[in-house]
Design goal:
This protein has 242 residues and is mainly β. The protein has three helices and ten strands, in the order H-E-E-E-H-E-E-E-H-E-E-E-E. The protein is globular, with a radius of gyration of 17 Å. InterPro entries: MIZ1-like_pln (IPR006460).
């Protein structure tokens, strides 16, 4: 099976590094992931009448506070999708790992419009029993629970979690991929079954991390020339205490 990817190198039976050409733009990464998922997807889009996102965020300009990191969006076809930030593609200690509120297929459908904006607002209370919560944290990204908005609509809560054994195995298999989108079969992830449903879908790229303040950070998908793009942005913010 040939996997949709970005760049000059084709993925065939296993994950390989992607030779990313300068003329390839970041929207092709999103398109590659959609082509993997949308043809077999029969789930509905998020309803338009759901709660709207607070419109108090924007794409920040390049600043001296910006750094480039490796970002990976991954998940099984009908399972919840995760977002992982690492210092580089080979790092075994993620800076951040979030389980998002939507499935992989739903997220791919949201990308059909050509852009994806995820806003994560520090939740005032934890909706999940057993998950601690603190209103005050010295590190914004240490917040355990986030209200999640996808393209302006509230879709539930994102949960910060520690990397599991299966997460680390998936990241290990992908460590040669710098920029690309594709799938990993069950055998490569040491799953007993190797069928259509157990394939892990992923999108990996360089993300620009921009720190606006102690209460706001954002991650923006870079194009291959290193410029901040508008196609995929993830915003983290918390409201100031009254």
């Amino acid at each position: 099976m040939a996997y949709p990817i970005v760049g000059a190198t084709n993925l065939t039976s296993s994950v390989t590094a992607v030779d990313c050409q300068k003329q390839v733009r970041s929207w092709r990464l999103l398109r590659a992931l959609m082509e993997l998922l949308i043809p077999t997807c029969n789930r509905t889009l998020i309803e338009d009448n759901q709660e709207k996102c607070p419109q108090n965020y924007h794409v920040p300009p390049q600043t001296t506070m910006a750094t480039t990191l490796t970002g990976t969006i991954f998940g099984y076809r009908h399972g919840k999708v995760s977002f992982c930030i690492q210092t580089n593609s080979k790092s075994t200690d993620p800076i951040l790992l979030l389980e998002l509120a939507v499935s992989t297929t739903t997220l791919a459908k949201e990308m059909q419009g050509g852009s994806l904006r995820i806003v994560l607002e520090s939740a005032s209370t934890s909706p999940c029993p057993g998950i601690g919560y603190s209103n005050i944290s010295s590190n914004l990204l240490s917040t355990p629970v986030w209200a999640m908005y996808c393209n302006g609509r509230k879709v539930g809560y994102a949960i910060k979690r520690r990397a599991s054994k299966s997460d680390l195995e998936a990241l290990r298999v992908m460590d040669s991929v710098i920029v690309g989108a594709g799938s990993i079969n069950g055998k490569e992830l040491n799953n007993k079954e190797d069928d259509h449903e157990v394939q892990l879908m992923y999108l990996r790229a360089r993300f620009q991390r921009v720190s606006g303040s102690a209460n706001s950070q954002s991650f923006h998908l870079n194009d291959p020339e290193g410029n901040i793009g508008q196609e995929l942005s993830i915003f983290f913010f918390r409201s100031s205490s009254p």
